[in-house]
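EI: anyone free to look at a 290-residue chain?
SC: sure, send it
EI:
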Amino acid sequence: MRSRPTSRGAELVAAVAFLVERQDADGLWRDYALPPGPSDAWTTSVVGLALAPFPAAAAAVARARTAVASLRRPDGWGYNAATACDADSTSFALRFVGGDPAPLARFLDRRARAHTFVGARFGSWSWAHADVTATVGLALDGAAAHAVRDAVLRRREADGLWRSFWWTTDAYAIARTLELLGRTGGIPAGVCMDARDWLERRPAAETAFEAAHLLTVASLCGAPTHAHAEGLRAFRCGDGGWPESPVLLTPIQADGSPGPPHPDVNRLLTTAAAVQALADDSAQASSRYR
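SC: here you go
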């Protein structure tokens, strides 16, 4: 059931409560129903990062940090204990719990592009992926982060932007890359222009997850955000969360073809994306009127 219109503050309070109430007793937030089982370290880190700015979630975030730290292996974190460590999960976990980012070095090639997995046995999963390269860059600092910045700027597609490998929507890769650029010296004017042009050509979002990332892209590139924020709110459910979004891909390892998308069955990743997008848009709006 979709909710009635509500104030931005109230909707964030309700969404934060939705996520906090769905934390497992061991401090983890689990989601997805893939063959290896649900994700734990990755999903917990994503949700925890979205909740970290909210005092009402402080106790839940502290429990989650302890839980994710306990799952660390010598070479980082994986989707769950049954899978190999990967660059994406390790990046999110390091951003959430902190610590030495050295485990990320093995996922970066000489051109500072990130490979989600290491080893030929993973096939296309070990290719360099734009959506993961940006995520790795966000977990680094100093010269290492700037090397990744240079890498993503060199790897722009014909429209000047980036493509997602692990998601059905390119909005994810574009949002993460703009976030990285914003934190490492600023988003070049030409990139902002390309992002605004891309937004103008986009149809309405097909999922709440996509709507959240379209809002993030608009906010970061200086495009009008009202319509994107309202589009995201239109998906909101009456319990304070957002509906599951079938957008996660597990591409065929042999050739990288997408395969069927997977939903976040517990609605955690989509709701976390909505919380972060709305909170960031609110902060951007406040800064414009100071």
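EI: The chain has one domain: 8-288.
SC: 👍
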